[in-house]
Amino acid sequence: MITLRNVSKRFETRHGIVTAVDDVTLHIEAGQIFGIIGYSGAGKSTLIRLLNGLELPSEGYLEVAGHELPKLTTAQMRTARRKISMVFQHFNLLWSRTVEENISLPLEVAGVPASERQQRVQELIELVGLNGREQAYPSQLSGGQKQRVGIARALANNPDVLLCDEATSALDPKTTNSILELLSDINRRLGLTIVLITHEMNVVRQICHRVAVMEAGRIVESGPVLEVFAHPKQEITRSFIRQLTGAEDTADQVIAHLRKANLPGVIIKLTFIGNQSEQPLIATLIQRYQLPISILHGSINYTSEGAFGLLFLHVQGSPEQILEMRTFIESQDVDMEVISS
Ligand SMILES: Nc1ncnc2c1ncn2[C@@H]1O[C@H](COP(=O)(O)OP(=O)(O)OP(=O)(O)O)[C@@H](O)[C@H]1O
């Protein structure tokens, strides 16, 4: 559905050349919800502008929904862009138009006759849950309702791809959840490919199937969400995961405290993914090894692809006993790391 091979985008500025997107290679399958996460300045907005044809790459191969965008004429680009829709952080609604009229706008631009427009607008209003608000103006809507209008408008011409540019960043946590649920529902019901850029790991956790982490214009890590959560390779990925678990900060505090108390034993970190998080592993360890084990910190996060859990334990045992325990834990497909001894 979307393929980028060695795509770069450079801008000439007064201070020299800025490489906003640097040698990015990426493939997004049809029907996926794909998250691109990065801090401010990482190049996410430029990447999304490349995907919707608002910018053209300085080099590289770029294909979206069957179109090699850099090769299109202006007229072809206009047609292609009807199938590549955008949802914006600040909604970008027309304030002088009602909900119905905002949603109808892209249909008018595409030349859909008035009679068909009305039926399509009604379908979209139902799809995004705005029944009864047809005649309201944007100023009379909550942030979540405004974003529902933005999503309905983006879906009007039956796009192949929906690009979401920080679509929930201006919303409170509860409204964020309801908009993410709506996007997830649309993905399931329409099989629509969704690419969303964000700086919030929570957004990735809740709805994405796959994620790419961007830093200084590059994709530094990517893969299925659960895999990246469980085995992050880059420090920047770990820092995003800490937004959710806070785990390592807590572990650092606990380790410092245990060191001060001069207690014997080791601290181990267990990482569970999917069904492993439902096993009674701790009870089994205590029964099997008869060692004092205390739970220092635990967290479990549910992603659209299954659960992901972290557990920090303090275990008092000899190095041989710890090694034996490790062999057992790993035979249960749970990752174990000794983080302090
Ligand atoms: N049109 C432009 N001209 C010059 N430099 C640009 C242009 N667009 C982006 N940049 C630069 O490219 C880099 C990446 O910017 P970009 O906006 O894509 O990052 P971002 O991850 O979306 O950050 P933010 O969330 O803050 O928008 C920045 O250094 C930015 O200043």
From TrEMBL:
InterPro entries per the UniProt record, alphabetical: AAA+_ATPase, ABC_transporter-like_ATP-bd, ABC_transporter-like_CS, ACT-like_dom_sf, MetN_ABC, MetN_ABC_transporter-like, NIL_domain, P-loop_NTPase
Keyword field? Amino-acid transport, ATP-binding, Cell membrane, Membrane, Nucleotide-binding, Translocase, Transport
Q: Which cellular compartments is it found in?
A: Cell inner membrane
**Transport as a keyword?**
yes
For membrane topology, the record states:
Peripheral membrane protein
A Pfam family: ABC_tran
> GO BP, one example?
amino acid transport
| Gene Ontology CC: one annotated term | plasma membrane
CDD domains linked to this entry:
ABC_MetN_methionine_transporter
| Molecular function terms from GO | ATP binding; ATP hydrolysis activity
Ranges where the ABC transporter domain occurs:
2-241
- Tell me the first and last residues of the signal peptide: none
The domain of life for this entry's organism is Bacteria
Free-text function comment from the UniProt entry: Part of the ABC transporter FtsEX involved in cellular division. Important for assembly or stability of the septal ring.
Q: Which family does it belong to?
A: Belongs to the ABC transporter superfamily.
This chain's protein is named Cell division ATP-binding protein FtsE
Protein's organism: Zymobacter palmae
